[in-house]
Amino acid sequence: MAVNRDKPGRWKADVAASVDMYNDWFMRFAPKAFRETRVQTTKDVESTLRSTDNLANIQPAMMRQHPEILPTLRMSTCPPLAVDRLIGLAGVSSTLVKCMEIEKKLPARMTQAATDKELARIAAIIEKMADPDIFVWLSRKSQPATEPEIHRAATIVADRLCGAVANPIIRNAQEQRQLAAIKNWLEARGYKQLMTGDGVKFDAMPPGTFSFRMNVPVKLEGGAKSVNIPIDAAINPRTAKKSGFPVFFEAKSAGDFANTNKRRKEEAMKMTQLRSTYGKKVQFNLFLCGYFDSGYLGYEAAEGIDWVWEHRIDDLTRFGL
Q1: Could you report the per-residue pLDDT of 158-178, keeping only the tens digit for each?
Q2: In which order are the strands placed within the sheet that holds 247-254?
Q3: Which of 86, 134, 137, 146 has the fewest CB atoms lying closer than 10 Å?
Q4: What would the CATH number be for the domain defined by 8-30+167-319?
């Protein structure tokens, strides 16, 4: 039986209440989450400066040992360099740069000699384009950088890095808060959390248990291969039979309407994969807070996906919980 997807007459009021809840959270907690990330990022940038002689001596060996510093180096130039711009300027392999950016490691198939040659090209570009207004000591020949100058420069670069990933920082903080709300609600009703290290698979969860970020295998189109898809919350009702199937929830938050409509197919794809693998017994639902308009809700409802609004979390009971 549907809980919210078959009640479009309530959608408008729920959207307004959800937007208000998200905005209230954002005003009170988003700046704190951003500041905490910026503090840690500043420390990471300071570490990078120390390992590069304050950008005066960037060595391939150091970059090979710490490939994760590449985003910091890109944000240290004037102007800051996008990934593709750095690849073009340095004339290096896109595989090398993207592995360092995304996977924080070097390509396995590149020889050390080839890697060092390309890392030296990247280092030359960074040193040549290092922002003189941030790294003021680079134009001085005798006086080394002072600690206040280094900290100030690290803070500026950290702001650039955090600014580039501001939305993911906020999304991550909001997701943690949403999962905490589900956890509190369930534990208040006698549910027990299964930790990811417990080794319990989703289809062997005891009644009255729940788990976060659990991997569920699904078959790809054609059925020849299977992959794991992450499920934010898997909950096995207390009244479930021993072989019962858990209820799945995806925690979703959004700070604007445009972004949600771009991402709405993601949930539909998960639902399709789950149902093609496990049949109609799958209950895949959303836990929503923020800017989800009628267009988004109608699309998900048409795909058979239901939802719980965080501002009305007690609707979880209507899913048999």
Answers
A1: 888 887 777 777 888 888 999
A2: 192-193, 209-219, 226-236, 247-254, 283-290, 306-309
A3: 146
A4: 3.40.1350.10
